């Protein structure tokens, strides 16, 4: 008789819900559920990366510390390489920071509705979760309540997403300054900032705030969600501590080469982001004209409640017609999140939505 291995699983892990999704259905017409880029990496970038890969020996490990990638990521945002920690997607960097600062009994402070994996990260790291929910019909952060809760305890670590997933709202630089004044460290996920406005970019605050850690990804604006590259940005001594919680060689050579290729074409990326932002405003206006409640967004998605409030039915009916959007009904009653796709995909979503309303 063997012993039960599940008895050895930590209670925090047993309490978590596994991250699962239904398979993509046959007859797919528009995939607007994962906040992926509507544009693929250019053929030129792919060809350059593949040529570089052919010249590499796959029998060898990636460069220790991802020095070339680290330098390119830093240069892309005007930082020094010592301020950047490359990772296998920004999620790996966020998990590392949560473990470093809030793990083993600390408290991760969130403002739901927010990216569901933050709770999973807290459980993995052994951190408690505290919450100050977003307020009002436009899902604004209750700044004073959040500041008050953040000031409680030396190991209370705020983690915010700006623009926020799933609502699309942002926090101001002045609020971040106030938050850093009361918190030992502040974690800010900026996965979607490339689709936003210049004032929403919090990187300039790193010059003055030693206890601020930012996270970026190449999955969204840079169109390489399938290759997993992200990073943390912080003061050099803080970045060094986060790097200790990331295993060596976490970014493979394929991801590194395509990341270097797309980072060299930032002008193309900026134009794609501007196009997405224009489409976002067009789709938001069309949804409001249909009577939907739409949260203000500066990301590449929209958070909405259909006119009849029955998001679950709308989700099913859209899926039956080959249009996938994200279910948010367990987060906010009746809510859905739709990624901004190509103009044709967005038109298909809107016309199909009209059919099912």
Fold and architecture overview:
By secondary structure, this protein is of the alpha/beta class. It has two domains: 127 residues, Aspartate Aminotransferase, domain 1 (Alpha-Beta Complex), CATH 3.90.1150.10; 223 residues, Aspartate Aminotransferase, domain 2. The chain is 38% helix and 14% strand. The protein contains twelve helices and twelve strands. A seven-stranded mixed beta sheet has the order 2-8-7-6-5-3-4, sandwiched between helices. Strand 11 and strand 12 form a beta hairpin. Helix 10 packs parallel to helix 12. The longest helix has 24 residues. The N and C termini lie far apart (57 Å).
Outline:
This protein is of the alpha/beta class and 357 residues long. It has 12 helices and 12 strands.
Spatial extent as radius of gyration: 21 Å
Overall SS class: alpha/beta
- The stretches of 5 or more residues where confidence is low (pLDDT under 50) are none
The CATH class of the largest domain turns out to be Alpha Beta
So, the CATH homologous superfamily of the largest domain?
Answer: Type I PLP-dependent aspartate aminotransferase-like (Major domain)
Number of domains: 2
Number of helical regions:
12
Largest sheet: 7 strands, mixed
Helix percentage range = 25-40%
The average pLDDT value, as a whole number, equals 96
Order of helices and strands: HEHHEHEHEHEHEEEHHHEEHEEH
What is the number of beta strands?
12
Q: How far is the first residue's CA from the last residue's CA?
A: 57 Å
Strand content: 5-15%
| Widest β-sheet, arrangement of strands | 2-8-7-6-5-3-4
Outline type: globular
CATH topology of the largest domain: Aspartate Aminotransferase, domain 2
